[in-house]
Fold this protein.
Amino acid sequence: MEKVEVGFLGLGIMGKAMAMNLLRHGFKVTVWNRTVSKCDELVEHGASIGESPAAVIKKCKYTIGMLSDPAAALSVVFDKNGVLEAVSSGKGYIDMSTVDADTSSNISEAITAKGGFFIEAPVSGSKKPAEDGQLIILAAGEKALYEEAIPLFDVLGKKSFFLGQVGNGAKMKLVVNMIMGSMMNAFSEGLVLADKSGLSQNTLLDVLDLGGMANPMFRMKGPAMIQSSYSPQFPLKHQQKDMRLALALGDETAVSMPVAAAANEAFKKARSMGLGDLDFSAVFETVKHLKG
Ligand SMILES: NC(=O)c1ccc[n+]([C@@H]2O[C@H](COP(=O)([O-])OP(=O)(O)OC[C@H]3O[C@@H](n4cnc5c(N)ncnc54)[C@H](OP(=O)(O)O)[C@@H]3O)[C@@H](O)[C@H]2O)c1
């Protein structure tokens, strides 16, 4: 597998870390990114550059996509010089972006109609787990491609799940991020409430960390939030996209989600305050603002 050419489309926060990881583990990687300059560091570490998504697909048996949202994932596949132009029998496309199930199904149908294989494989875990190969991979679609891709997933993640038909990986990812977004809002409100009640926010972090609600997210993000430091690990605009897509899934399935809906409003407010490119923990600023 290490000798097989692996393509990588999308070198944002996650894609760059994941492609770098593959290179470090001896894979031959050909990269493409809309903003070409983001390829430079990967090239310094041995990657080749493909001129377009189509060129990458043509060269590589397996290609991974890691794009920001449904519009980007669709554009890379369906636009001129996109993935679809070069897909042929035996090619495998693995979309690891977080999108909705319909987007994934549209991509899957188009690729399989041309004889290619498709799986969606969105990930749980942020920049650091991506750098450390500790992601949780939520795959679904063509089982044979999933099995062939396991050597890649073993490098990128600490555990991969095969969840059945296309759409199930996307849905699982949206459920997870809906929970995460709601948690971040409750956490932010707690920090503000502690502060306004004359309590130490640092002591609140210590109390939380010793009990049943202890978790790596509070532990990692809490101290930075208290310092109003929001270096982007997971951009807030993407968290709001995931809340929006999860709420749409709730519409389809008639699941009432008032907590998630309120959290989505806070993320929207944060975007309107110009915080979209900061870490999603910057929603804390919105809560501070609302509480006056
Ligand atoms: N960061 C995290 O913690 C995290 C964790 C789990 C899942 N995810 C998901 O993983 C995906 C990538 O996240 P990220 O944090 O790496 O995002 P990011 O840093 O914003 O990178 C987004 C990537 O998508 C590309 N892109 C955006 N619009 C495009 C378009 N119209 N055509 C072609 N390429 C386009 C960007 O290209 P340019 O460089 O040209 O802008 C960039 O390569 C998202 O779906 C996100 O929800 C992120």
